[in-house]
């Protein structure tokens, strides 16, 4: 069961973007840059730093231009930014972004509710932005949301996900982040989608973007590893979700993913202790403790033994 | 990846025993019986109800005799109780228990610290208790603690776990609960132990007893399913751990396991909504909210969507 697993995995840190965009707290540009630098210091070599959405839609990331402009480049560190449309691309290019992330979803209803357009319309936007980006020498990652379960439509067709994955690659993306947006998927879903895609697309073109709503995220990582997928998104401190909804779930926490991969003997080049330091820093920025299992156990200094403990 | 998974899984509910023994709150006999009945109503057909340890060691379960004596039998429901020694067996037999659970561990240091004897001595106790139980028509389950990682010794030898598993079966146990006592294991550990055991022992003789300290429990369930293991322990509301140690982790929550198995298309006969009701009840008994992902999401009525959610 273990012999065929990848020996090395890439983690894409999305906390500064997918995390902070969903947190109520105001985080200053300098604090954001400090967090990103801590994450890079921990060995994370792909970091999604911000989003060039309209500042009115996501005021938390209204300083995207400054974040990108002021971040120092490092050898081996790839910084990306989310771009929703051509206006966002203009800003991203002006700020000097070298890699952008575009998005659509596999659920028609979710797409309409999330970005107020149809999937077809979102693909038209994707095509226009992607083409201009590639012409400008900027690489493109794609998020495909609700690949497994949609909060409105329920189960999503694996064949539909496979078709969209192929289309997004044809439109210029070099990596498709198959996203379990509400964190409801179990490995059966991951296997089904993976099997539908992997006879058309090679595993290095895929990433898994998991939320940990029901605690299934690491089991979905195992399923992904067993299918040869080597790129996983995560957010330090489990940032994300909606702070106004009690119990809302964030992204799979980077520290939980790193613990898991370390224990699996899979190389990430990421240092767990330093990620925990970054989680502390992120938590103090957003004003709530890290929402990871790893943090609450290790930093809570928990776990003794008691008589008859099984 | 999915085609070879078991179609049906048995859940052994250990909350009333392994959960309540680690909770500070005093729960009355009537409340314990009420909780067990709710769990049976939810479709759980194997419930570990209590422990016949010395009342001074675990005062929370000092009423084991009364719990077993007053529980009404139901067709299809198997009630078990933990028994640490011959004195405990005397009490268990007098109370009318039909199935007992004995225990030892795969780590010498853990065994000495947990039950103040060597593994060899604990096996001698096991032999004496098991023999008398079987002669009295009482069936025996065995917990083998620290099968993967020991808090004192670190990694545990899979070969040692396999040897002990065989020995416990020879001593009269019909099922060995391979226990990740501190919840530190990842699927690599489960695969290693499973592979060492399964060329000597058939999968129906094994159970996995997982704690969810680092969020790896469901990934370990997936590993177990892939090796053909069909019995999994869980505790309603994620009861367990030590309430005095901040962040201490409980057992894998029954409701998280049921959600996972439901979503995997694997039959359990357990009703998730009713388990969540039982989790509410259990939580009010111990005075803290359920420590499961499922409860906090579903009963917290969380999760909306926001613009650009991936």
Terminus-to-terminus distance of chain A? 26 Å
| CATH fold label of chain A | TIM Barrel
Annotation field: number of helices of chain A: 12
Instruction: Identify the CATH homologous superfamily of chain A.
Output: Aldolase class I
**Which whole number gives the mean pLDDT of chain A?**
92
The order of strands across the largest sheet of chain A is 1-2-3-4-5-8-9-10
Summarize the amount of helix of chain A as a percent range.
Answer: 40-55%
Strands of chain A, count: 10
Helix-strand pattern of chain A, N to C? EHHEHEHEHHEEEHEHEHEHHH
Shape of chain A: globular
Poorly predicted tracts of residues of chain A: 243-248, 301-307
Oligomer kind: homodimer
Main CATH class of chain A: Alpha Beta
Overall tally of domains of chain A: 1
Please indicate the percent range of residues of chain A in DSSP E strands (runs of 2 or more): 15-25%
């Amino acid at each position: 069961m273990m012999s065929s697993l990848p020996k090395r995995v890439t983690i894409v840190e999305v906390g500064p973007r997918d995390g902070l965009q969903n947190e109520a707290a105001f985080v200053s540009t300098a604090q954001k840059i400090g967090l990103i630098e801590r994450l890079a210091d921990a060995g994370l070599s792909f970091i999604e730093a911000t989003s060039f959405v309209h500042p009115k839609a996501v005021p938390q990331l209204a300083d995207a231009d400054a974040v990108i402009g002021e971040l120092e480049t490092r050898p081996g560190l790839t910084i990306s930014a989310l771009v929703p449309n051509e206006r966002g691309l203009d800003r991203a290019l002006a700020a000097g972004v070298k890699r952008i992330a575009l998005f659509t979803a596999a659920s028609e209803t979710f797409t309409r509710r999330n970005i107020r357009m149809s999937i077809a319309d979102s693909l038209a936007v994707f095509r226009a932005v992607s083409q201009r980006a590639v012409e400008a020498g900027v690489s493109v990652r794609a998020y495909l949301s609700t690949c497994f379960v949609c909060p409105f439509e329920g189960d999503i067709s694996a064949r539909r996900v496979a078709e969209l994955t192929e289309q997004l690659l044809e439109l210029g993306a070099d990596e498709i982040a198959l996203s379990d947006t509400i964190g409801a998927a179990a490995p059966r879903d991951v296997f089904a989608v993976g099997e539908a895609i992997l006879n058309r697309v090679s595993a290095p073109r895929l990433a898994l973007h998991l939320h940990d709503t029901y605690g299934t995220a690491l089991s979905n990582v195992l399923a992904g590893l067993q299918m040869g997928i080597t790129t996983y998104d995560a957010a330090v401190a489990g940032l994300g979700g909606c702070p106004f909804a009690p119990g809302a779930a964030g992204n799979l926490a980077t520290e939980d993913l790193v613990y898991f991969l370390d224990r699996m003997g899979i190389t990430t080049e990421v240092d767990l202790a330093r990620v925990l330091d970054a989680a502390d820093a992120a938590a103090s920025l957003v004003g709530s403790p890290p929402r990871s299992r790893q943090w609450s156990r290790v930093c809570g200094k928990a776990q003794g033994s008691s008589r008859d403990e099984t």
